[in-house]
Each structure stands twice: as C-alpha cells, then as structure tokens.
C-alpha cells in the first residue's frame, strides 16, 4: 500500500493544522543560550514552510481562531481596564499610550519614506512589536470590507501582504526585543537588582523569600501546663511571641474538657486546656520553645481538620483596593496566601501589594476557614469547574453584531469591524464577570486553552497565507522591510525608557516591566525579572498589558484605513 503524503495533507485541513502546531511547539521550545522564539514563532515558521509548498486549510479554521483569540483578549482585559487607572495607573496609561501611538507614528513615517503599502506597514508594526492583536485588527479590517480594494488587487492578496510583512519582521521582533531588554541595563550602567530592591523598600515590600515562607502549614495540638499560664489570657500568655507568629500561623482551636471553645486574645487559659496551632513545622518548634507549651497531644477533635488549597477570584468591594497586609488573611483567618496572579502574571507577595478586581489568590488553610475567607474576598474559581459556554457564545454573537454596525460619514461607511466588536464585547463580559460572578464562569485553564488554541489556529492561517509569497517578497522588499522592523522594535523601547525615566520618573525595574507589557511580550518580561532577581517588574507589566492589547488592535485597523 502506497501513501501519498502530499495528497493526504492537501485534502485534510485538520491534519495540516495540528501537524503544524505539534512541530511548531517543538521548534518554539528550542533554546539557544537563554533565548527561544516561543510557541507562536515556532508555529509561524512551520506554517511558512508548509505554505511555501502549497498547503492550505479551510478559511473557517483561521476565522474561528481569530474569533476565539480576540474575544479572549478582551475578556482577559476587562477586569483590568478600570484597575489600570488606580495606583500608578496614570503612569501605566501614559506609557501604554506613548508606546502604542509612538510606534504607530513611526511605522506610518517609515512607510512614507521607503514607500511601503499599507498592508506591509500593518504587518511591519505587528511583527516588529510581536503584537498579534495588531495583526488581527489589520486583517479583519480587510475581511470586513472596511478597506477599499485597489483595482487589480483582491482582499486575499492584501491579507497575504499583511502576513508577509508580519513574518519577515517577527523573528527580530522577538529575539531583538529579548536582547535589548537584557543588554539595556548594562549599557546604561543600571543595577537592576538594586533598583528593584529600592522600589521594594519604598513600597514596604518584604523580601520575596520571606513572603513565601510557610507555604505548607500543618495542624498540631499542645496541652497548656499549669506553670506560667494559669488564669492568663491568650494575649497575656503569648504577648512577646504573638506579634512574631501571627504573620505565619494562627491558633485554630481550644478544647477544655470535652468542649471546643472559640479562641480570641481575651480567652482565659486554664491548666489542662489543649491548643491547636495551624502553622509551618519550623514555627511549631518555636511555639513549643518560646511559648513553653506542654506536651504535644493527639486529639481528633483538634487535629482532625481538612487542609485545602483554593483559587479565589477577587471581586468583593471589601477586598478590591486593599493591600495584602490590610486583608489580614493569616492573622484573622488562619489561612496562607501562597500566590497572587494578575492577568496570568505572578505578583509580589508583600503586605503593601494592592489587590485589584480580577486578581486570583491561591490560598492554603483549613477548609471551613477557607470557605469563610472566600465569602469575604470573592468567588472560588475551583467551584466553577464548568465553563459557561452560553455566556461565552452569546458574547461572541453580540461582538460580531457590534462589528457589523457602521456609521455613514461623508458618504463613507465607518465601523469597528469584527475585531473591534469582539474586543468590546469581551471587555464588557470580562468586566461584568469580575463584578457579578454569578455568570460567565471560565476557569483559568479554560481561558488559557481557548486563547492559546485560537491564537495558534490563527497563526497557522497567517503562516500558510504568507508562505506562498514569502520568497518573492524577500527578494522585492525583504531587506528594507527587515531594517524597518529593526527600527520599529528598538526605537519605541528606547524612547519609552527615556520618557519613563525623564518625564514620569519611574523606577527602572518597574519601567522595563511596563514597557514589555506595552509591547505585549511575556518572554521579555521573563528576561527583565531574571535580571532584576525580583517580581517587581511584573507590577509594571500587568499595569500596561491589558490596555496595550486594546490599543494595538485598534491601531492595526486604523493603519489599514489611512
């Protein structure tokens, strides 16, 4: 039996799509030193090769990918759009606007100087900034009929030009940006570690190692001896030690005879009482030594507790805007905060870190205490195992309808297209979900797979479309387009850094994080955090990332309308 692989792949879009994704994952994970092009770059390269040899897929695959990706971008940005205007919000907003509008102006200027058509200019901006939302916005403007088609051309040819421009500039956009953020502190003789530490001290951040101490608390019980403790309150008996251990543990229960008594600082201890402490093994040693408690006891009423881990989406009016220290999670509830993520980026665990709507807290503690804490903070993500596909699908439908709305201005129909409509709808649903968690359930894993799969489906289509004309384009405009890409990758970052330091007076570690967020480059954030040996840059990244996604999508559409 002879298998014609060319014919097999030519006749099966599903086979082509998942083969490219699988090979692209392998390519994207290959590291050269500390650098890798990432999954998106790997899939794009693989798709270009397949496209060069004439393989194509059903257009509906790319359309579905585009829809899932851009709607998920809006959904993820929704809770953070308002938050970006809070603490340091004006700086983040200014940086995002400066980077987005500055890059747009630079691309338009370069296009005029070197005579690039709008399609290649849009691809240049998307690739040099590694901004898929810009690419989506530009291509959708053509598909939605917002862009006049010149005589002798077709919408397919224009979309192919956008894809070619993106493909030629994307690789340097990825690698060049990583190199630049890695070398910039050295070139400017900036000690990024010291600057991150300065910011941490300024904001009252504790050392991150200390903040993550005691992440696995355990429950043990001790008998109260008659010596030193008779008729003393809990506060009196542990006055010297209580302030030290409260940040890392808590008294869980007190048993007197056969009765369980609620514990408070005013509770009077009696000989023979049994106290259960919920804290780390190391702290248990300190409790025994410094508080001089009696022997450890095994009492099922005290130690028979279910220790659990939950993910909580913060949305209560009580928690939003408070610092971790003000929430007193450990002191008042006996639970432990082990991680805090914002837009899927891990935030520093410090008493001064301010909690925002839509943040995800990872908490460890006794199940009953956790349930009480969840009711105060927001909604438990684990309770939403199923994705609310009704809201998800309805949001997409509404977004597509919004994209069809046009306004006639001077005889020309103007609209925001499907990309704009889906983005608006996604932002609205994400924002409402963060404030009213009774609908729109979408666990983090579901969000990731929908957004990632949508992006990869879209990138497969982009690569296949560009692959057919990539060789000719490299010969015709490749060198000048590549050089323009180098300029667009480097100049906005350097200008943004100068603007942030001179005008906004931002801390360099925080500023570099904000700049990588404004260029929507998570790999670059990783390089900055590694150089700073701190998660402080992630605060800046989270501040600009959501808004930058929205701005760059809109600018992708706008550049095609010029």
Number of strands: 12
Sequence of strands across the biggest β-sheet: 3-2-4-1-5
Q: Which descriptor suits the 3D outline?
A: elongated
Q: Uncertain regions: pLDDT < 50 for 5+ in a row?
A: 207-215, 240-248
- Overall average residue pLDDT: 78
Indicate the percent of residues in helices: 55-70%
Radius of gyration from the alpha-carbon trace, in angstroms: 28 Å
Structural class: alpha+beta
Strand content: 5-15%
- First-last Cα distance: 56 Å
**Discrete helix count:** 25
Main beta sheet strand tally, sense and closure: 5 strands, antiparallel
Overview of the structural elements:
Helix content is about 60%, strand content about 10%. Helix 4 packs across helix 19 and helix 6 (about 120-130) packs antiparallel against helix 7. Strands 3-2-4-1-5 form a 5-stranded antiparallel beta sheet. A 5-stranded antiparallel beta sheet has the order 8-7-9-6-10, covered by helices on one side. Strands 11-12 form a two-stranded antiparallel sheet. It is an alpha+beta fold. The chain is built from 25 helices and 12 strands. Mean pLDDT is about 80; it is low at about 205-215 and about 240-250. The N and C termini lie far apart (about 55 Å). A hairpin with a 2-residue loop joins strand 7 and strand 8 (about 345). It is elongated. The longest helix is centred in the first third of the chain and has 33 residues, at about 155-185.
